[in-house]
Amino acid sequence: MIHAAASRSALADLRKRLNAVLPDLSNTLLNWIPLLRRYEDGSRHRELADELYEVAGLLSKQARLRRALGDPSTDAAARADLARSLLRGQVGDVALGLVADAVSMRWSSPWDLADALEILGNDVLLAAAEQDGQLDTVEDELFRFERVLADSGELSAALDETGVPAERRRGLLRSLLGAKVHPITAQLLEHAVTSGRRPTLTLAIDDLLQASEARRAHSVARVLTATELTPEQTERLAAVLTRIYGREINVRTAIDENVKGGLVVRVGNEVIDGSVASRLAAARTVFAG
Questions:
Q1: How far does CA 59 lie from the centroid of its chain?
Q2: 251 and 222 within one domain
Q3: Within 13 A of 188's CA, how many CA atoms are on the CB side?
Q4: How far apart are CA 194 and CA 166, in angstroms?
Q5: Cα–Cα distance between 46 and 250 in angstroms, integer?
Q6: SS3 call for 253
Q7: Do 25 and 101 belong to one domain?
Q8: Tally of domains within the chain
Q9: What is the span of the domain harbouring residue 187?
Q10: Based on the domain organization, do 233 and 158 belong to the same domain?
Q11: How confident is the model at residue 84 (pLDDT cuts 50, 70, 90)?
């Protein structure tokens, strides 16, 4: 999503600042939360993520504000002061500090500033999942929903249709998810389906999986099979991939009837296609020639 060198550098610095405040988020109440409210584990992170998402959404909708806060030719301190004056009382101190830090940095494009705040919101939620020992669960649920979209072009189109109001698409998503996924998975997907910053929900999920993978010293192999792998087969495959790539590989599996037989393994941008379907397609190409 962010490609220019200056913006990548700014995002890396912003993530360091986020990581510095996350431990405090686990131990203290955000000062704007009413004292009588009670939150389950991870909810403070989810509140912060929502605030960052809201500011990112505001910048996406307000072109003049986006340019004013993301213009590298203006004074950085003045941009930070403007952000504080506009958002004080609307978001908590943690979010306000992160936004002020973000707008004081140099971005290659004002759009990169908006995207960075959205990415930061994702990072907060993934950090909450990691803290609660639920990152594997969230990764698995994201991957499986990605496969649901791949298997249903009609559903994917309905969730990606920008002509449909965001709330209606969110409602459709909620009706599909119900209470079947972790709350953090649901929040990540709900934001992805309403944000509009990625052309498809599938691409947004791919970004989330890569961000989750980057939090740990391992990679995730997304494996499509014609039939469910046994735990022993999954363990052996993970061991083989770990040896091949020289780092820990976690395996996420999903059934895809189009595979026919064998496996299709994706690690990052690399695809290892050992499926019967791919071999049949190759044979047809040869005979057609």
A1: 19
A2: yes
A3: 34
A4: 5
A5: 26
A6: strand
A7: yes
A8: 2
A9: 5-212
A10: no
A11: very high
